[in-house]
From TrEMBL:
Component of the F(0) channel, it forms part of the peripheral stalk, linking F(1) to F(0). GO terms for cellular component: plasma membrane; proton-transporting ATP synthase complex. F-type ATPases have 2 components, F(1) - the catalytic core - and F(0) - the membrane proton channel. F(1) has five subunits: alpha(3), beta(3), gamma(1), delta(1), epsilon(1). F(0) has three main subunits: a(1), b(2) and c(10-14). The alpha and beta chains form an alternating ring which encloses part of the gamma chain. F(1) is attached to F(0) by a central stalk formed by the gamma and epsilon chains, while a peripheral stalk is formed by the delta and b chains. It holds the Pfam family ATP-synt_B. Belongs to the ATPase B chain family. One of its GO terms (molecular function) is proton-transporting ATPase activity, rotational mechanism. It comes from Arcanobacterium phocae. This is ATP synthase subunit b. It comes from the Bacteria. Keywords: ATP synthesis, Cell membrane, CF(0), Hydrogen ion transport, Ion transport, Membrane, Transmembrane, Transmembrane helix, Transport. SUPFAM superfamilies: F1F0 ATP synthase subunit B, membrane domain. It is found in: Cell membrane. InterPro entries: ATP_synth_B-like_membr_sf, ATP_synth_b/b'su_bac/chlpt, ATP_synth_F0_bsu_bac, ATP_synthase_B_chain. The gene is atpF. The chain crosses the membrane at residues 28-47.
Length: 189
């Protein structure tokens, strides 16, 4: 392999026109012409469609950015609207709670008033019943005490009182005196 490299170097030393870095003039001319033809063809045919594709892509990107900005603005508006709706819902809930509290207070007050009224009626009925029972007991006691007093007076005197009007007057007078004696005794107690 060393031999091959040395023979290539020796061969190149004999021909001074061959250079690895500088091509021959005809190759340089034909290469330049071919390059220009390819460059012009690309510039005429491929570049417009490539440029159009780049412009389309730039337009799509720009439209996407605008759509994103519009969507961002809509989202911000919706958030603001939702925030306002949430605040309205909180206010409405507070109003409903206040109404419910007021209704509860009203219902409690009405129930208390009705309970007081019913209690007053029950007390009044009980008082009337007690008065009626007391009057009935007085009448019964009055007639029984009158009968007992008449019987007692008859035993003491030894004769039966035949006049019922007289017996009634004596009995009433005795009971009145007894009641009059009972009232000061009750006041002292």
């Amino acid at each position: 392999m060393i031999r091959m490299i040395s023979s290539t170097i020796l061969a190149t030393e004999g021909h001074s026109t061959f250079s690895l870095l500088v091509p021959a003039v005809p190759d340089l001319i034909w290469g330049t012409v071919a390059f220009l033809i390819v460059a012009i063809a690309i510039y005429k045919f491929a570049w417009p469609s490539f440029s159009a594709t780049l412009d389309e892509r730039a337009d799509k990107i720009e439209k996407g950015i605008q759509a994103a900005e519009i969507a961002r603005a809509e989202i911000a508006q919706e958030r603001a609207g939702l925030g306002e709706q949430l605040r309205d819902a909180h206010r409405e809930a507070e109003v409903i709670r206040e109404r419910a509290t007021d209704n509860a207070k009203t219902i409690v007050a009405q129930a208390q008033a009705q309970a007081h009224s019913e209690a007053g009626q029950i007390l009044e009925v009980a008082r009337r019943r007690i008065e009626a029972d007391s009057d009935a007991a007085r009448r019964t006691l009055h007639s029984e005490v009158g009968t007992l007093a008449t019987d007692l007076a008859a035993r003491i005197v030894g004769e039966a009182i035949t006049d019922s009007a007289l017996a009634q007057r004596v009995t009433d007078r005795f009971l009145d005196e007894l009641e009059a004696a009972m009232i000061p005794a009750n006041q002292e107690a």
